[in-house]
Amino acid sequence: MRVTRSKITTNFSEWYDWVLSEAEIVDYGRYPVKGMGVWMPYGFKIREKVLNILRTLLNNSGHEEILFPLLVPEDLIRKESKHIEGFQGEVFWVTKGGNDELDVKLALRPTSEVAITYMESLWIKGYTQLPRKFYQVVSVFRYETKATRPLLRVREISTFKEAHTIHETFEDADRQVKEAVSIYQQFFDSIGIPYLISIRPEWDKFAGAIYTVAFDTVFPDGKVVQIGTVHHLGQNFTKAFDMKVQRANGTLDYPHQTSYGISDRAIASIIAIHGDDHGAVLPPAVAPISVIVVPIPSKEDNEKVLEYARKVLEQLSSSGIAARLDAAEKMTPGEKYYYWELRGVPIRIEIGRRELLKNTIVMKRRDTLEATEVKLPDLIDAVKSLLNQIDKDLKEASWSRMKSMVRIVHTMGEVKTELESKMGIVEVPWCGNDACGLKMEEESGARVLGRPYHDQEVTGRCAVCGSTAKTILRIAKTY
Ligand code: P5A
Ligand code: ZN
What we know:
Elements: H1 6-10, H2 12-22, E1 26-27, E2 38-39, H3 41-59, E3 64-65, E4 71-73, H4 74-77, H5 81-87, E5 92-97, E6 100-108, H6 113-123, E7 132-141, E8 156-167, H7 170-190, E9 196-199, E10 211-218, E11 224-234, H8 236-240, E12 245-246, E13 252-253, E14 256-262, H9 265-274, E15 291-295, H10 302-318, E16 323-325, H11 333-342, E17 347-351, H12 353-358, E18 360-365, E19 371-375, H13 379-403, E20 406-408, H14 412-422, E21 425-430, H15 434-444, E22 447-452, E23 471-476
Parallel strand pairs: 3-7, 15-16, 15-17, 20-21
Antiparallel strand pairs: 1-2, 4-6, 5-6, 7-8, 8-14, 9-10, 9-22, 10-11, 11-14, 12-13, 17-18, 18-19, 21-23, 22-23
Helix pairs in contact: 3-7
'5'-O-(N-(L-prolyl)-sulfamoyl)adenosine is lined by residues 111, 113, 142, 144, 153-154, 157, 162, 206, 226-229, 231, 259-261, 263-265.
């Protein structure tokens, strides 16, 4: 049984701010620039763990890490017309250096397509140098005009994991999109975040893309969050930079590109989706501390209890388990439970005089708060298998919660009532015409997420025009 989630579901916004600040993950709102905040030490460690998972996936699939400058000159950022049209209103500009007006304004990168394509056009001359797959982990800046929310909608995305690839043919880039989707699936699976993968409609693709594939998840308040995107950029940017390379058949042509990215929202999702009324619940894969050992003071045998707790810690640590002993004297065990539960530590071990005398420990899992008594010789096996179990159970629970929020409906009336009553995502039969899709968006007062990336069987008729449905369209209220 999970700990109750009533605070999250009824007042998600308040709960979310409370966990982020009380568990010392990030400090937003108090930093005097809107939409920007501080990663606190505990949050920074979570961030690092999450980053390492993605880095490993990217490194193991032939991606090379690079680091570009933060500033992009105005003429570069204006090169691709659709791109700048999309980002126009979101760019922060540097216009002065000291007391001097700059000749060329410099943009704080809102993303890096143009900067990277520009350099690629100097580096790459022929197909023998293709493909190249780059990525960087950087801050990007977007002057968001909607209400900002910590990690979710920020003006400095301070953990932007952006990949940029370049290929000889359209088909190669298409295959890269598939690889990227699979990498992101593995990434979200490893942190237990459920997702739906959709091809965004024409009117909502990335500025400068041929098509966009997006990962969406449902938050506890029923609203949908886009947690990652993969774009096929075709030749749009290479044409803008007049970047031709030699093909295998001897002709010159513009290479094809893709780009894909995941932001601070990955961590927002971990907190929001696994959390409960006691605070964060971290999947073992990203928990900075796997096990917190809390000694329970005893009048008769306090020193012995502490010694026993230290021995338990020593055994855990030497088996490679990230464990910590909370021996602070100024806090009661109850206060310590509150503190570590809030921070989402997967397992708590309680040790008192009773355990000392029986040569056992009490092991409590954070997600359900269930307790098990374990004999000391079984400690390591028990902890390892419980960590695995928690990992599995968190993932299963979050997927089943999300699935219960996705329903198929058949009419626009149902779209509206379903979204109003229960939020989440509705799927509705669609003929595939943009005009009908736009009408659905308009009539529902919600956002079209697009059609399924993986084919999904469809029956029935388009909810707008009544002709035979070719696919379904997903609609949701979004962040
Ligand atoms: C892909 C990487 C890009 O920028 N260029 C490089 C491409 N795509 S994107 O869709 O615009 O952004 C990638 C993901 O970043 C998240 N995101 C944000 N997160 C927090 N605050 C923001 N203001 C913000 N804007 C975008 C989304 O998850 C998006 O999918
Ligand atoms: Zn239609």
